[in-house]
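quick q for whoever's on today - can somebody do inverse folding on this one?? i tried earlier but teh output was garbage lol. tokens:
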């Protein structure tokens, strides 16, 4: 292996989905010697081991952290980030979830962009959510430039987790995924970065994300309550803060069935501007 720094390390948390992890890794296209994959096995019933990846190109560098019992994705991600903070042999951290698929040019375009724009510390892309059984889905389209992203973050999360790549230095300033925001930890993490650094989103669909079981009614309420707390903490724009909180309180108190009908309505009308 070359002595130069790796371009990126791809962080993948996993719980009982070895098939999905293999599928995701097989979608990665990049120079083998310039990236590494870090899998955090969050207490899977059958532990993930290196021998599980015999079907993957042997040149792909894979490391595995095993958590003895299932602790949830927040702990899994922070366990991975803590290990990565101790290392300095790479430039960027990228994310992917088990079962999600990267388009072939994803990492080449993200690394190339960050190399050309040292002022950008967090870079996302557009993505497509798709039901793997039916093939039906929608494109998740967001603002792309930092000032617009800051405004948009009041009303929806501009960054979708499996699309992001960020500089290692972000952890030194921001730390890890914050606790206290159930089902919205990533939203809080992105707000932390957006408030401190310049960010951007590539205006291309570069990741296909599998639609799995939807969030439960109970967890949806917890998520909305977390988003309210996040908005109250991070927003410094009085107008957007008020508008965001009004919107969140309305969504929180609407019947769950009505929310699902609204989603179907907006997806039918304009699937590429999904707002929930």
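ok took a stab at it. sequence:
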């Amino acid at each position: 292996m070359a002595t130069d720094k790796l371009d990126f390390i791809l962080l993948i948390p996993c719980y009982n989905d070895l098939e999905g992890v293999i599928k995701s890794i097989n979608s990665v296209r990049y120079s083998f010697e310039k990236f590494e994959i870090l899998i955090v096995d969050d207490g899977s019933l059958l532990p993930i081991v290196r021998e599980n990846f015999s079907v993957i190109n042997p040149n792909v560098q894979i490391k595995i952290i095993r958590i003895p019992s299932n602790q949830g994705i927040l702990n899994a991600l922070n366990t991975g980030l803590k290990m990565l903070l101790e290392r300095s042999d790479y430039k960027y951290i990228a994310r992917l979830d088990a079962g999600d698929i990267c388009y072939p040019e994803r990492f080449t375009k993200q690394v190339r962009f960050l190399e050309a724009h040292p002022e950008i510390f967090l870079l996302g892309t557009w993505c497509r959510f798709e039901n793997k059984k039916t093939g039906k889905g929608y494109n998740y389209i967001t603002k792309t430039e930092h000032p617009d992203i800051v405004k948009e973050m009041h009303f929806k999360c501009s960054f979708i987790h499996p699309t992001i790549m960020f500089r290692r230095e972000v952890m030194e300033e921001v730390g890890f995924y914050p606790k206290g925001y159930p089902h919205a930890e990533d939203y809080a993490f992105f707000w932390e970065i957006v408030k401190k650094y310049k960010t951007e989103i590539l205006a291309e669909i570069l990741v296909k994300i599998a639609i799995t079981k939807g969030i439960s009614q109970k967890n949806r309420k917890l998520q909305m309550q977390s988003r309210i707390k996040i908005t109250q903490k991070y927003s410094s724009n009085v107008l957007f803060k008020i508008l965001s909180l009004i919107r969140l309180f309305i969504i929180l108190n609407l019947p769950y069935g009505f929310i699902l009908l609204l989603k179907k309505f907006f997806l039918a009308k304009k699937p590429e501007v999904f707002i929930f």
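fwiw The chain has a mean pLDDT of 91. also Residues 6 and 131 are 34 Å apart (CA to CA). so keep that in mind when u check it
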